[in-house]
Design a protein that fits this description.
The two termini are 20 Å apart. This protein is α/β, with parallel strands linked by helices and 323 residues long. It is built from 11 helices and 13 strands. It has 2 domains: 170 residues, 3-Layer(aba) Sandwich (Peroxisomal Thiolase, Chain A, domain 1), CATH 3.40.47.10; 145 residues, Thiolase/Chalcone synthase (Peroxisomal Thiolase, Chain A, domain 1), CATH 3.40.47.10. The strands form 4 sheets. Strands 1-7-6-4-5 form a 5-stranded mixed β-sheet, sandwiched between helices. It has a 4-stranded mixed β-sheet with strand order 8-13-12-11, sandwiched between helices. The protein binds coenzyme A.
């Protein structure tokens, strides 16, 4: 008998503080019109002082556990996709586990930048399908604004903070149909940070830690790559484009989302879009968009949903599921 991983609950959390494009006009040489036209972003949320990635993850997880109607003690693994952990170690998953109060179960982070949640979901799916685990909490959580250079207008306008979570449960009913992950480290320099623990963290050399991106080059690769992952996912499942009810894409740029929808011949009213409200929240973006889609009543039980993401590494991936 085939065992599927079924999503039985989702949750999301956005910090209270909102930074609008107008607010950004006072910080860098930019304007609301440019940001909206080039990215679709209107605002982003910013974590409060003293509020860390594990706190955002905790708030999203509590909502996902409530929706699933289970306790943290019912979980048997926690996986967190993040590229902005609270600390280098312990992992954000361990800090989250302590906050949730479920010691003993395996807990670890996955770093695949903006594809982090899809990567984490694919790992969780394999554990459940193998029969070794029954209920896994999978989270995407980020405080990306902590590593933004607020003087660099080409990146400062793009990113935001947030967290999304799903509870996966072993089921006889169809759930995740397939996951697909890829990477190409040859393009590491197009989207990266200026420093890290092993290369040296000395601020006097390179300034504070910051995201660095060659946006235009990233844009072109992202559009092409997301097109191919969509094809791969459909072919693997022997499905047609018209079989997909909803696209839940990584929320980096509305123009990238629109291009992927066009490739799928999907109307934009079958695509979940949250980038206008959140900016690019990296690994948090797909689970937050999924939660929004479900809680707003757009995505319904039994529908076929395609999740996809692309990010630094480069990494990219997809998951096709029946809700
Ligand atoms: N406000 C106003 N002008 C800005 C600006 C800002 N925040 N940022 C850049 N510009 C200017 C540039 O300096 C440039 O001016 P110039 O023509 O006088 O040189 C002009 O706008 C166009 O810049 P360009 O970088 O070519 O714009 P773009 O259309 O490629 O849009 C991004 C920039 C970053 C929005 C876009 O490339 C993008 O979204 N890339 C992918 C990002 C992404 O998805 N990253 C994460 C993957 S997970």
């Amino acid at each position: 008998m085939t065992i599927y991983s079924k999503i039985i609950g989702t949750g999301r959390y956005l910090p209270e503080k909102i930074l609008t494009n107008k607010d950004l006009e006072k910080i860098v040489d930019t304007n609301d019109q440019w940001i909206q036209e080039r990215t679709g972003i209107k605002q982003r949320h910013i974590a409060a002082d003293g509020q860390y990635t594990s706190d955002l993850a905790y708030n999203a997880s509590i909502k996902a556990l409530e929706a699933a109607d289970i306790q943290a003690s019912d979980l048997d693994m926690i996986i967190v996709g993040t590229t902005t952990p609270d600390l280098i170690f312990p992992s954000t998953a361990c800090l989250l586990q302590s906050k949730l109060g479920c010691p003993g179960i395996g807990a670890f982070d996955v770093n695949a930048a903006c594809s982090g949640f899809i990567y984490a979901l694919s790992v969780a799916d394999k554990y459940i399908k193998s029969g070794s685990h029954k209920r896994i909490l999978v989270v995407g959580a980020e405080t990306l604004t902590r590593i933004v250079n607020w003087e660099d207008r080409t990146t400062a306008v793009l990113f935001g903070d947030g967290a999304g979570a799903v509870v996966l449960e072993a089921s006889k009913e169809q759930g995740i149909l397939s996951t697909h992950i890829h990477a190409n480290g040859d393009h590491a320099d197009l989207l990266t940070t200026n420093k890290g623990p092993s290369r040296g963290m000395d601020d006097s050399q390179t300034g504070p830690i910051a995201i660095m991106m060659k946006g235009n080059a990233v844009f072109k690769v992202a559009v092409k790559t997301l097109g191919s992952i969509v094809d791969e996912t459909l072919e693997h499942n022997n499905l047609e484009k018209s079989d997909i009810d909803w696209l839940v894409p990584h929320q980096a740029n509305l123009r990238i989302i629109t291009a992927t929808a066009r490739k799928l011949k999907m109307d934009m009213n079958q695509v979940i879009v949250t980038v206008d409200q959140t900016g690019n929240t990296s690994a948090a973006s797909v689970p937050m968009a999924l939660d929004y889609g479900i809680r707003s009543g757009k995505i319904k039980k039994g529908q076929t949903v395609l999740l996809e993401a692309f990010g630094g590494g480069f990494t990219w991936g997809s998951a096709l599921l029946k809700l």
